[in-house]
Please model this.
Amino acid sequence: MYVVMIASECAPVAKVGGLADVVAGLSRELQLRGHAVEIILPKYDVLRADQIWGMQISFENLWVPWDGGSIRCTVWFGFVQGSKCYFIEAHCAQDFYNRGTHYGFWDDPERFAFLSKAALEFMLKSYKRPDVIHTHDWQTALVPVLLTEMYATDGLQHARLCHTMHSFAHQGVCNKHILYAAGLQAPEALVSPDQMGSDFDPHTINLTKGAILYAHQVTTVSPQHAWEVQFTDQGCGLGHTLYQHRDKFTGVLNGLDYAVWNPEIDPHIFQQYTAASFDLKAVNSLALRDRMQLRDDGRPIIAYVGRLDRQKGLHLIRHALQYALANDAQFVLLGSGSEAAINAEFRALQESLIDHPDCHLEIGYDEELSHLIYAAADLLIAPSLFEACGLTQMIALRYGTVPLVRSVGGLKDTVFDWDYAEQPLAQRNGFVFEYPDAPGIESALCRALALWKQQPALFRQLALQGMAYDYSWNQPGQRYLDIYQRAAVPD
Ligand code: ADP
Model:
């Protein structure tokens, strides 16, 4: 099969969160299975150029019709960890992708609607005729709409459309003008509430709703989350639409790219190790303490790695920190937020704990350091309020770091409580709590620290059971291929 992924992120060149890991990991898995995959991305000024091999111009002077005129684009080509990537550079006054960061601008809907349009124009004009076009999140949700409404007679009509939602918190709710700018012939028909229109505002459309209506298959990134978005408020207003289209809606657990996340070969950690040489993991703990100037007197390290976003349960992260320090544990955090107020709050916390011998907060994005933390910590917390899939708990499992998570979304699908899970004891791999409040997370932390202190052999067994789990792309890769088959367009 010939698959084109269109996305706003791809690890490691353009990574903000898990979306980037999924685009890169799934693409690699499909290629390993003998399929041809190409990835289309924006050419951000913040691309990690050192991770792109053989960057060269692939298509010069791609004129993309936009908002009554047209914008000249240059399409670049390069290999990212062996995958073929095309990068769209837009030469226009708004400088869509040269903003010093990936997201957070008032015209984000236009920036990414343009990416969707430019990707289709590029495929059309460079005679790419993929079997499958796989789009991701609201940023590229306009592709299925545009392809069906505008490009269906242009040779691209045989492409099967699969759209994956990694987060429902952002849906691309924007002014309907975007549809005119993209050149749709009869946008008024699309603006009604039973199409892409908002239920509340006649001038507003929802790009993700468009993808749900137009894509042949729609997925989200865990079975539990697929249920939550239809039957709880986690669909953020899209529950009814998803339920109506439930025949083509599936939850597929994300995989983890084991070529990147593997303590046996990880170049970013101080000491490589496997389940058989588990004791060597302690060398990384020592290295992390040294780097973060934490005292080394045999306390367990509790870690948090991830975005600092309300979704991640920020009050519970702060509570875990206080609880750890009050209970003879150490706490390490690596995170950055997109909201200035949240960053400021965590910087103040960092400042107040700057000389603490058991605590270190690193505010910022640091891919290499994240590897060392996964390898060094004893416990990793993920107390999310909602979590479509979550990768950090799966990475932790791979590194023999016991995850402690809230029972929600993909966290619920992947972590099974040591004391209470339905699974047999030998298949349990972490700690889980239900209610997103202080007593909830404390109950799990208390049980985890008690096991670590009082029954170290059992804690070690729990960590090794986690390492034995296979959360690679092997199974999800096959699931996506099945979904692509189901998406086949009847001739
Ligand atoms: P989300 O997609 O909501 O951000 P996930 O758990 O699915 O959350 O994916 C998070 C990914 O981003 C993981 O690979 C994690 O290691 C990485 N990550 C998040 N924040 C940081 C950071 N500040 N520094 C390094 N890596 C980070």
Remarks:
- The CA atoms of residues 333 and 361 lie 5 Å apart.
- The pocket of adenosine-5'-diphosphate is lined by residues 17-19, 21, 305-307, 334-336, 365-367, 370, 389-392 (CB under 6 Å).
- The chain has a mean pLDDT of 96.
- The longest helix spans residues 108-125.
